[in-house]
Write a structure and sequence with these properties.
74% helix, Serine Threonine Protein Phosphatase 5, Tetratricopeptide repeat, 0% strand, 332 residues
């Protein structure tokens, strides 16, 4: 006989199933907030890490709305779900990192007031989570805004607060990040001695291995430190040392993986060559930066290349003219 023609559950068994369903739905109705567990933290952390890495490839313009949506999702999960205290702390920690990313993307897009608001949100969320490392990293990014657009001395004070807050709990990469930001701020102040001390501490820290680095530390390595050291030397008026660091970094920098960062550092290397009186070398580096720039959307990169165009416009060698043709005045 074809048993597929018969019902499998009937009678008392069927009634029991219906009763169980009725009880379950009544229970759900009495508790409108869904419950999430620790596995959600792992999934959400992975999403956020992937989003952060997209900035390396696309730039901030394409990602600001996406990062803001991620922050809204995390905020909603905090307020509209039930969870353990441990899961809640994890959600606050992720919200802090999402707000930090929103701050960075806003800064890179030229929205400086919004960037500061996001950074302050990140600090509050990290304090609630008890995650001092996320908070310290947020202060490192706030320092970039301060030494670039505000008062470098405020940036130094902020980094020193971050360093004190994570003493005894910091990983090698977080130590390197904070020393590097300290060095950049000090270079803006013209403090060559303290800048060199901070850079040496950053290079020392990055050589120490650790199996438990936060995912947001992925970008810091010796190559990046050489690029930051080059920027410091440029600010301190030592163009020759800047070229040395930028050349060392370029030999190992993965431009295809990090085109957004490449635009900035190639442009700074070009500035160093221009300071040494070599406009052709500067223009050649600018041409490489333009090729990277074609794939990203970053107001900061736009401004950087426009400023270099203005400085190179007074030189009329063939290589310089080729670069000037790539970046017409209307886009500068």
């Amino acid at each position: 006989m074809d048993r597929r023609g018969f019902l499998i559950t009937t009678g008392a068994s069927l009634a029991g199933t219906a009763l169980a369903w009725s009880s379950a739905t009544a229970s759900a109705a009495s508790n409108p907030y869904p419950r999430i567990g620790s596995e959600a933290i792992t999934s959400l952390s992975t999403r956020l890490a992937h989003l952060s890495r997209l900035d390396d490839v696309w730039g901030s313009g394409k990602l600001r709305d996406l990062a803001a949506a991620e922050l809204r999702l995390l905020t909603g999960l905090i307020t509209d779900t039930t969870h353990t205290t441990e899961v809640e702390q994890g959600l606050y920690g992720l919200a802090a990192e999402a707000a930090r990313l929103c701050g960075w993307l806003s800064y890179d897009s030229g929205h400086h007031a919004a960037a500061q608001r996001y950074y302050l949100t990140a600090l509050r969320a990290s304090a609630t989570a008890g995650d001092t490392l996320v908070g310290a990293n947020t202060m490192a990014f706030m320092a970039i805004q301060l030494y670039s657009r505000g008062n470098p001395q405020d940036a130094v004070a902020l980094v020193e607060t971050a360093q004190r807050s994570i003493r005894g709990r910091a990983t090698p990469k977080t130590i390197a990040i904070l020393h590097a930001r300290q060095a950049r701020a000090l270079s803006k102040l013209g403090d060559q001695s303290r800048c060199a001390t901070a850079l040496n501490a950053a290079f020392d820290a990055i050589t120490k291995g650790c199996d438990h680095e936060p995912s947001w530390c992925y970008w810091i390595n010796t190559t990046e430190l050489h690029m930051l050291a080059g920027s410091c030397a440029l600010d301190l008026g030592d163009a020759r040392r800047a070229v040395h660091h930028f050349t060392t970094a370029k030999d190992s920098f993965d431009i295809a993986t990090y085109p957004a960062g490449a635009v900035i550092y190639l442009a700074r290397a070009a500035e160093a060559h221009l300071a040494l009186g070599d406009p052709d070398a500067a223009a050649d580096l600018c041409l490489q930066a333009v090729r990277c720039h074609d794939s990203i959307d970053s107001a900061r990169a736009d401004r950087t290349l426009a400023a270099l165009r203005a400085r190179l416009a007074r030189h009329r060698t063939p290589v310089v003219r080729e670069f000037l043709d790539q970046i017409p005045p209307s886009s500068a």
